[in-house]
Amino acid sequence: MRRLTEAGDTIVEVLICIAIVSMILGGAFVTTRNSQLGVRDSQEHAEALKLLESQLEQLRADAASDGKVKTFGTPFCMYNEQPVSATSPPTSADCKQDNTGAPTTTQPVFNLTVGRVNSSGGYLFTLKAQWASVSNGQAEESMVYRLY
Questions:
Q1: Which of 81, 95, 100, 135 could join 41 via S-S bond, C-beta 3.0 to 4.6 A?
Q2: Is the confidence at residue 94, as pLDDT, over 70?
Q3: Nearest by Cα to 129 from 114, 115, 144, 110
Q4: Are the beta carbons of 110 and 48 closer than 8 angstroms?
């Protein structure tokens, strides 16, 4: 006969509890990781848009300085600390910038290009930013702006 004072869990019950806790913790980890990747992806897109807007503001400032857009070769881009003038045209199409607009080769690297085509009465600029995204490989943002 069994004694009434003996009580406890069997090894099978303990293993089942460990398996259930492991599944819950694994699901929480996956959810947290996906959320973290989504936040970082949003940050990268916001940084790319900020850089594109910076390029656009430099184009507008260049046009406002003398009332016309200089005829730079296309594609091109501009660095934040580099003044644009007829004697110092924008840098080449291979323009790699960090999130502050400074030249860089460290991650994240945003490859910026500005393309220009003549349109009725002005120029149509296509600004693009490409970078290696944390969530899905290569990502790109683009913006189109008409300047008269």
A1: 135
A2: no
A3: 110
A4: yes
